[in-house]
């Protein structure tokens, strides 16, 4: 362990060849080459080859290999080759799907990778945490994830949580002073910060000492939880379903095997057939299709500005019943503009100040000095204040330079205050700004017409009335106060009292144009939108009413009130409450809990460091990509790259659509398999020769079926998904009504397959011709059926060309089938007879009728 904690700033600068201005860009590039990216070595990535090999470990493939061995023993070399070729093609398809899914997940990972501010060439720039190098000067602030190990050069109440490293859940205060000892445990290195910890409060300037695997975290990286994607609940339940089904099918195959023996088919052929039937019937593609559809879905979501970090969340999106959303920036534009000012008992327009008057001047000074923003970077509330002063020709840089900050207590959303200390002329002034209800109770005096006097009850009443007046027009209100200190000292929370009131500043933050329509959609979709804000009750209600979240008769609950309520009381109120005002981040967890105890799936937004627990607790934790802290992004399951409420609604729509598509893919696969099984069972019981050759079933199940199933998974949304209620998360994917549709559709297709068989078999009892036609009808009918499974409505309702993938999948299947039927060289391999023009017409008609019937049914049903 290096003892950076015992080195002075100068020694460290020398050691890392860097100065106050940070590294130059060129030097940073050099160091990046030398030390590598600042990342932990992830687990060995599976090579494409090993993914390919792992495809052969599948249960189904093992059955197929047995089948090829049986073929070989029975002297059917061609069949063996076909099976082996099919296995290889299937493995290639599986590998491509796996690699594609992996790629899309990885590209999302890089989109959500954390950012950090560093000094490069003296400028503050934001870079991806991976690019941090030893010697960089990092500017940490509340909400950041510490990306590398470093020595604290300056600390402003910097509190860091190191629990991931030391297990200690309490925040640790970090200071810059040198610690003069030889050795220290990590927990005692109070002037060092370590990768993997999070900044919970204050800010600090840090010199990066170690990056990547050289950090303390890197040394224990092996112990870290793997970030590998786990299987989603849907995949688990489909796998279970698949296993149960497989057992049933194997029993069925044994029965068919015995029946075939009974009918005099030889033992090897009977065995071969039973194996092929198992392959045809087991829906082995289900789980992988779900993965690929979910992965493609996440890509689509990211294009719609929602980055979903876990596949599992895509599923849960469709179940969301409540969206608890922050107001500022999510429902509103987060573009604040000061509109009104209240001083000396008068309400003025923002343009009505007189900058030569003492009290007006104090307002403008405090606006700049008690502020961390510039005119375009920082918290929008504070940017608005810089812009206010700018209107009066006050240059914020110059003023900050003239009256430098001596001490500060940063803003936090629990205290709702911010304080700074400056020497102005001969006075040491402490400025504090904050929420009216947090600051006014700490006030003892008032500045009116440039005179300070004790504050009276009437003054407070007037302040509160004005605050209400501002809030009713949707303004966010800040109180300004100050006090004179005796000396230049470090202030602490105990100093935040005995203030002199200066005035109120009211600023507008208009709702986003899209919010109202998005709220309407939510309500139509049976989802309850709830506003949660740190803002004042009246401001919040005014904005909530404007965008349709608040309706007359709804409850508005304030943080203080919520604190007094028991969990049971909150649970009883939560459904009628549409606005929570003046809440602190801890309240958000209780709101999520209350909704979850009512069985609702709850989405919750958050941006601050203290929002992380609520984001973790929510079923879908949503962080803000632009304004959110890294800690909140880390805790969230979804990140909005545009911070916009309407994106949440879009993501839910897409989530519902993805689920519906998966269901439709399942319907397609299972109904086709059912058709094959019914036809086979019929032929066995009717004493007909075996209706399909094994290779037929392999051909359909492994070659022509997968593409339409994936194409169905890519069906675009038709808008009607929002007309349903949110899905019950406990509802199985294979509902009774879906099972009935699968059986009926399978039966209809099977009937026409059997008719095809009889036509081919004819009076000449030509079994090869019969099975050729039966196979072709089954294959083509399933391809047509792909269009039926695209959605609830008829093909005209859905729009034929809306899903080009389904047309392409059909064409590929059709071409493959035509090749097998029409190229004489393939006849032997695929066990088909030469066919005439008449046979082709019969196949087309028989394959088309089931879809025609299903489409007619849909047209009649959905016309009503
Ligand atoms: P929302 O929860 O809707 O996103 P918010 O997160 O912006 O709102 P907070 O930031 O917690 O809410 O602000 C709560 C209150 O604190 C505001 O109404 C305002 O009075 C006060 N406030 C906000 N920003 C500052 C600041 N930079 N300095 C001092 N006070 C502030």
Q: Compounds present? A: adenosine-5'-triphosphate
The CATH homologous superfamily of the largest domain is called: Calcium-transporting ATPase, transmembrane domain
Chain-averaged pLDDT:
88
What structural category arises from helix and sheet content? alpha/beta
Main sheet attributes: strand count, strand direction, barrel closure: 9 strands, mixed
Would you kindly provide a brief summary of this structure?
The chain is of the alpha/beta class. It is 50% helix and 17% strand.
Any chance you could write out the topology, listing elements then pairs?
Blueprint: H1 9-15, H2 25-35, H3 48-54, H4 59-73, H5 77-111, E1 115-120, E2 123-128, E3 137-141, E4 149-161, H6 163-166, E5 171-173, E6 192-193, E7 198-210, H7 216-219, H8 233-262, H9 267-281, H10 286-303, E8 306-308, H11 311-317, E9 320-326, E10 337-343, E11 346-349, H12 358-369, H13 380-391, H14 396-402, E12 405-409, E13 417-424, E14 427-434, H15 436-439, E15 443-448, E16 451-454, H16 457-472, E17 476-485, E18 499-508, H17 515-524, E19 528-532, H18 537-547, E20 555-558, H19 559-564, H20 567-573, E21 577-581, H21 585-597, E22 601-606, H22 612-617, E23 620-624, H23 630-635, E24 638-640, H24 645-685, H25 694-704, H26 706-713, H27 736-761, H28 767-788, H29 795-798, H30 804-822, H31 824-830, H32 837-863
Parallel strand pairs: 9-19, 9-22, 15-18, 19-21, 20-21, 22-23, 23-24
Antiparallel strand pairs: 1-2, 1-3, 3-7, 4-5, 4-6, 4-7, 8-24, 10-11, 10-18, 12-13, 13-14, 14-17, 15-16, 17-18
The structure holds adenosine-5'-triphosphate.
């Amino acid at each position: 362990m290096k003892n950076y904690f015992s080195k002075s700033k100068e020694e460290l600068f020398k050691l890392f060849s860097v100065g106050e201005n940070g590294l130059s860009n060129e030097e940073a590039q050099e160091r990046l080459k030398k030390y590598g990216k600042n990342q932990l070595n992830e687990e060995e990535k599976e090579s494409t080859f090993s993914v390919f090999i792992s495809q052969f470990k599948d249960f189904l493939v093992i059955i197929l290999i047995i089948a090829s061995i049986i073929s070989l023993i029975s002297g059917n070399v061609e069949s063996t080759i076909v099976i082996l070729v099919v296995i290889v093609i299937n493995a290639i398809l599986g590998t491509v799907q796996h690699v594609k899914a992996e790629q899309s997940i990885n590209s999302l990972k890089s989109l959500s990778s954390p950012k950090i501010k560093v000094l490069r060439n003296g400028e503050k720039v934001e870079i991806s945490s991976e690019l941090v190098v030893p010697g960089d000067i990092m500017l940490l602030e509340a909400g950041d994830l510490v990306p590398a190990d470093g020595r604290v050069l300056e600390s402003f109440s910097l509190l860091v949580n190191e629990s991931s490293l030391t297990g200690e859940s309490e925040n640790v205060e970090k200071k810059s002073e040198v610690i003069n000892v030889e050795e220290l445990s990590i927990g005692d290195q109070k002037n060092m910060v370590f990768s993997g910890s999070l900044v919970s409060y204050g800010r600090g300037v840090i010199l990066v000492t170690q990056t990547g695997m050289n950090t303390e975290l890197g040394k224990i990286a092996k112990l870290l939880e793997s970030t590998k994607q786990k299987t989603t609940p849907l995949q688990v339940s489909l796998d279970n379903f698949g296993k149960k089904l497989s057992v049933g099918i194997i029993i069925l195959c044994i029965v068919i095997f015995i029946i075939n023996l009974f009918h005099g088919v030889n033992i090897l052929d009977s065995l071969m057939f039973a194996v092929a039937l198992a392959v045809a019937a087991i829906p082995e593609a289900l789980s992988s299709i779900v993965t690929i559809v979910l992965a493609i879905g996440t890509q689509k979501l990211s294009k719609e500005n929602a980055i979903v970090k876990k596949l599992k969340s895509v599923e849960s999106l469709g179940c969301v019943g409540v969206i608890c959303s922050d107001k500022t920036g999510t429902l509103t534009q987060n573009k604040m503009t000061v509109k009104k000012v209240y001083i000396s008992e008068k309400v003025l327009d923002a343009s009505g100040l007189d900058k030569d008057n003492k009290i007006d001047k104090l307002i403008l000074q405090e606006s700049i000095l008690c502020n961390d923003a510039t005119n375009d970077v920082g918290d929008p509330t504070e940017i608005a204040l810089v812009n206010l002063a700018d209107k009066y020709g006050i240059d914020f840089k110059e003023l900050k330079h003239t009256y430098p900050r001596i001490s500060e207590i940063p803003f936090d959303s629990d205290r709702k205050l911010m304080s700074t200390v400056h020497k102005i002329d001969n006075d040491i002034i402490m400025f504090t700004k904050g929420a009216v209800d947090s600051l006014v109770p700490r006030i003892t005096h008032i500045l009116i017409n440039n005179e300070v006097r004790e504050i009276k009850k009437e003054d407070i009443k007037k302040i509160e009335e004005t605050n209400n007046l501002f809030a009713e027009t949707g303004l966010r209100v800040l109180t300004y106060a100050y006090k004179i200190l005796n000396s230049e000292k470090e202030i602490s929370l105990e100093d935040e009292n005995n203030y002199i009131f200066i005035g109120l500043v009211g600023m507008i933050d208009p709702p986003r144009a899209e919010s109202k329509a998005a709220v309407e959609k939510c309500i139509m979709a049976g989802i309850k939108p709830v506003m949660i804000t740190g803002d004042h009750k009246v401001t919040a209600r005014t904005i909530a009413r404007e965008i349709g979240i608040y309706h007359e008769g709804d409850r508005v609950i304030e943080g203080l009130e919520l604190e007094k309520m028991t969990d049971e009381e909150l649970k009883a109120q939560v459904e009628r409450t549409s606005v929570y005002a003046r809440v602190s981040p801890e309240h958000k967890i209780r709101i999520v809990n209350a909704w979850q105890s009512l069985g609702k799936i709850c989405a919750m937004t958050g941006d601050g460091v203290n929002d992380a627990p609520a984001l973790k607790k929510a079923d879908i934790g949503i962080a803000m990509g632009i304004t959110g802290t890294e800690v909140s992004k880390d805790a969230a399951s979804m990140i909005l790259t545009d911070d916009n409420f309407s994106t949440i609604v879009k993501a839910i729509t897409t989530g519902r659509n993805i689920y519906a598509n998966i269901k439709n893919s399942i319907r397609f696969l299972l109904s086709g398999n059912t058709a094959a099984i019914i036809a086979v069972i019929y032929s066995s019981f009717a004493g007909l020769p075996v209706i399909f050759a094994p290779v037929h079933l392999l051909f359909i199940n492994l070659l022509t079926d997968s593409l339409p199933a994936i194409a169905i998974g890519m069906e675009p949304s038709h808008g009607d998904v929002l007309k349903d209620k949110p899905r019950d998360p406990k509802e199985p994917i294979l509902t009774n009504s879906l099972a009935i549709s699968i059986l009926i559709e399978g039966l209809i297709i099977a009937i026409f397959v059997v008719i095809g068989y009889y036509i081919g078999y004819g009076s000449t009892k030509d079994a090869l011709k019969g099975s050729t036609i039966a196979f072709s009808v089954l294959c083509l009918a399933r391809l047509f059926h792909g269009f039926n499974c695209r959605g609830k409505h008829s093909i005209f309702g859905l729009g034929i060309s809306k899903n080009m993938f389904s047309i392409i999948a059909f064409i590929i299947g059709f071409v493959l089938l035509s090749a097998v039927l029409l190229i004489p060289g393939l006849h032997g391999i695929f066990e088909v007879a030469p066919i005439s023009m008449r046979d082709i017409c019969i196949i087309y008609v028989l394959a088309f009728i089931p879809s025609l019937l299903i489409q007619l049914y849909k047209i009649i049903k959905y016309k009503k």
